[in-house]
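The data are set out underneath:

___
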Amino acid sequence: MSRFLCLTLCALPAAAQYAGLSLPASGNNQAASVSQMIGPAKVTIDYSSPAVHGPGVPGGPPVDRRGKIWGALVPYGLTDPGFGTSKQAPWRAGANENTVFTFTHPVQIEGQALAAGRYGFHAIVDPNEWTLIFSKNSTSWGSFFYDATEDALRVKVKPQKHEYREYLTYEFLDRKPDSATASLQWEDLSVSFNIKVTGATEIYLSRLRQELRTDVGFQYLAWTNAAQYCVQANTNLEEALQWADYAIAGAFVGQKNYATLSTKAQVLRRLQRTDEAKAIMRTAIELPGTTTFEIHQYGRQLLNNQQNADALAVFELNAKRFGEAWPTHVGLARGYAANGDKAKALEHARKALPQAPDALNRTALEALIKSLSE
């Protein structure tokens, strides 16, 4: 069995390939690669992908190996491959060269820490539980020279039934901002394991601090975007306030506009400095360069936060500044409706309807008018 495994699934490199010639993949096990960003970290899997229907004799039909993959073509446990220095070799979780995982940042595999780097990937296959091995040796040909003393990490996972896959495939599933599930799928089985990036927020903050010191830092938008990230992550708020201030008044960089002032207001709200945030937003919406759409969006934010009276005041200011321009009447309709004045809300919704710039807004206004009329 081990000799069959060596000659088919894990074919040895030909001498011509050592000479650097461009030839088809050994055993027709095509090279493949898949990468996924998990938060700030990039995870890459490089592997060779065997098929269930393997190569037969030259010129003959492919060999149907379905039902003969697990425990046969891929043996259970550790085996002697009959070549190389390893007498207790796991499966290389692919074909030909090492399957290699590359992590640009430290991660946790099934909750266990693994440093950034390149790792040869192997598996001890079992009907009920697999042992996944990340080896510090990422350059060997397969598992023929596997050495357990080079293991960086071992984790145990359960195999699962899966829809048929002709070619061995790796995929990233269940993707979240700081984690994803890597899944090996072949024939009618899959093995999946969780990859989580440790300290993703600190990685982002470290990058932001470095990048703001480069030429990127000569743009006020860079400082506002950095501060807004902190608001969204609810972290590093005191430094975010400094970044917001620099976007407003930093030498050669700062600009006092709606974007910079509203960003500072967002930080102040996170810091529970509500009165200061309101005062800054008042200044922001009264700036000559502030647009009707920016004021309208601020009013909508206040409505979403159940600050209905404040929202109506903002919509009224928008109408005072921009008159009949779209979307002042929409804002007034929503503001009056939220404050219980359906008559005025209906009046402004009817004025807004012929101004609607597209079908989506027109449909929304028609629904609002119908609701208010009833």
Notes: The chain has a mean pLDDT of 92.
